Hints:
There is one protein chain. By secondary structure, this protein is of the alpha+beta class. It folds into two domains: about 120 residues, Creatine Amidinohydrolase, Chain A, domain 1; about 250 residues, Creatine Amidinohydrolase, CATH 3.90.230.10. The protein has eight helices and 17 strands. The strands form four sheets. It has a six-stranded mixed β-sheet, covered by helices on one side. Strands 7, 8, 9, 10 and 17 form a five-stranded mixed β-sheet that branches. The chain has a four-stranded antiparallel β-sheet with strand order 11-12-15-16, covered by helices on one side. Helix 5 crosses helix 6. The longest helix is centred in the middle third of the chain and has 30 residues. The chain is elongated. It starts with a strand and ends with a strand. The mean pLDDT is about 95.
Amino acid sequence: MDGWLFYDHHRRDPIATHILGLATEGLSTRRWFYFIPAKGEPRKLVHRIEQSALDAVPGDKLIYAGWEELHKLLGKLLSGNKKIAMQYSPENNIPYVGLVDAGTIELIRKMGKKVVSSADLVQKFEASWSAEQLQSHLSTGKIIDRVTHDAFARAAEFVREGKPLSEYELQQWMFEQFCANELTADDPPAVAVQPNNGNPHYAPTAHESKPIREGDLLLLDVWAKSTKPGSVYYDITWMGYLGKKVPKQYAKIFKILCEARGRAIEFIKESVEKARDIHGWEVDRVVRETIRKAGYGKNFVHRTGHSIGQEVHGNGANMDGYETRDDRKIVPHTCFSIEPGIYLPEYGVRTEVNVYVGEKEARVTGAIQKEILALLA
Length: 377
């Protein structure tokens, strides 16, 4: 690539704002461009009315007023460069990165430039963790693992004693434990019994919540991060059964998911150890094929996993060949979830772990559930 061209209008590209460290307040009503060449100094193009839009970043400034002047100076900004990276994704395979509008891409191409995706560059600056961030993830994971198991124990205690407990009440109790341990999250955990756990994105509210009773299959999808600035998320799903012995149909489904999860983890580990490039869609294919062969392909209705960062859904490669075709490489110092699920009308089952990829090895960062917990045993 000859350079990376950032472009924005009305803050449509949060990736550009975050990577360049731009302010999120104030007026942003005129187009700006910022070009970082592979060699040499960066250059910026801003509107006369908003000349300070890119003052936070270095580089010579070009100023335009009318659209004709914009086109002329944009050509000057990119002069001598042919292959330009932008927040663009061919065929919109990665909509999280495809943020530049089609017309702007057409304009750059009209100038004789080849536009390529910045997707892997974005990973380097948005998804790669520092050593401190990895440590924050691991520390948070220990707390979340404990709170999750305490939540199962709490549900079992209430059932044994015949006391009422709803999905929402257990969710709020868990969130209180996060706050007490200096953790935060954009949303509280997902707590779901059947049939609600058959909806992958179900979350209880004060107005919509089922009671937790004996014989229920309980799903806990739990995510949080430290309140310290720059911290990253930990995100898991565990399953428990409010009874003495897990019914065979639940155990059978969970065993299939464990096999799919294990194959994905081994595929990733082996690829990293052998320094073989792999992409998010390939991991999804490994998991999806395992579930398909077991006869539940139509019931696995979401991607295998998502990038994890300072946001629970980060800007790195997703393990996805289903909802999108994520062709980003899995790069070192990134983390993502592996969360296969089978969702039936009567109930849903999911397992979720986090996988961190280092320079020469990959590993699951927390405990791995091997079977559904029998909570009243």
